[in-house]
Amino acid sequence: MPAAPPEVKIPTRKVLAWGAWDWGSSAFNAVATTFVFTVYLTGKSFGDTDHTSALLGWALGVAGVLVALTAPATGELTDAAGRRKLWLAVFSALVALCLLATVFVKAEPGYLWLGIGAVAVGTIFYELAAVNYNAMLTQVSTPKTIGKVSGLGWGLGYVGGIVLLLIVYVGFISGDGGLFHVSTDGGWNVRVSMLVATVWFAVFAVPVLLAVHENRAPAAVARERSSFFGAYATLFRTIRGLWQESRNTVWFLLASAIFRDGLTGVFTFGGVLAAGSFGFSSGGVIVFAIAANIVAGVATIATGALDDRLGPKPVIVTSLIGLVIAGALVFLLHDGGQIMFWIFGLILCLFVGPAQSASRTFLARLIPEGREGEVFGLYATTGRAATFLAPTAFALFVDLGGKQIYGVIGIVLVLLIGLLVMLPVKPGGAKLAGRQPV
Asked: Which CATH number fits domain 247-365+388-422: 1.20.1250.20, 3.40.50.1820, 3.40.50.11540, 1.25.40.10?
């Protein structure tokens, strides 16, 4: 038999340029939607907190539906046209504009909808950008390094969140306007933080556009360009084809949709639980958030090599088991106070990043060149279709138990269901066919 061709080495600068987008995305994930701007937006300056929180939730729900409807079509179109990098640039620029819009949101009720709209629309463009960004993973890695590269990207995202949170908290938020004594009138200190976040995202979105070449579908998988609505016909054929040629992939998409929503719930409600059930101050919540990102980032980067050596499924299953156990102990030992939350909350964070990264590589290993955007668009759609699970389960168990801490059971239950659906999925499985008629 002829010797296999040597594996192409991907330049480190290209890998780091790709990972810089994950690093910069912390401006949207950590600052805009988690720890700073949405907390500001649901504060008393904009009206009743319960009412503004509900409005924000509905707006993000609508945004999620729109992403679910559009992500696979846009992924298919960028694959067919060979314009993945172009659309990553366009959607990233639109995210930056939405971040910039938050700078103009004064701490007054009349600016509430501007803030909600900026976050909701920014979420749509961010998710569409992520479809193209995730699809580029196979352009900056090889079969032997895909786990390590994916883990590096996730890890850089966490570390970027740490650095940016420290900058905005110490510089503008803590105390009375932070280290730079920025005025708090009209929420100016938060708005300056959002200006910093805008620049942060814009700057770190550029390297990948300069270092990674545009995708060009090989002849084996090339196909005619279709219209936006024509892409939906292709999507339905893709789903039908996946069911016929690789039900393993369909089951993975289902399992990952469930457990990824549980992973999101861990971070979404972590700060809420820290303050409401364990008595953390607002400053204490941010300190815990920084520690959580450090643990998650280090764990994600460190387990990338295990992904390459053992495969992504063992990483996913081990992480989900760890999450279920640690989450259960957060609930069972909550009478132990803040020390219990610090211990088992950080253990939860230890497993979140590896599960997220390995989920991305599990799918990437199945996709042939030229179909990455299409299938990652479907990955985004299935993930978005399940985004109601963790919030609904959390709220349901809070109502049943009468206390906020019971919401932990809901999140653990979602993770457990995701684990059970994941167990029968075959590791790797057969690679999907090229872009032949499906």
From this structure: 1.20.1250.20
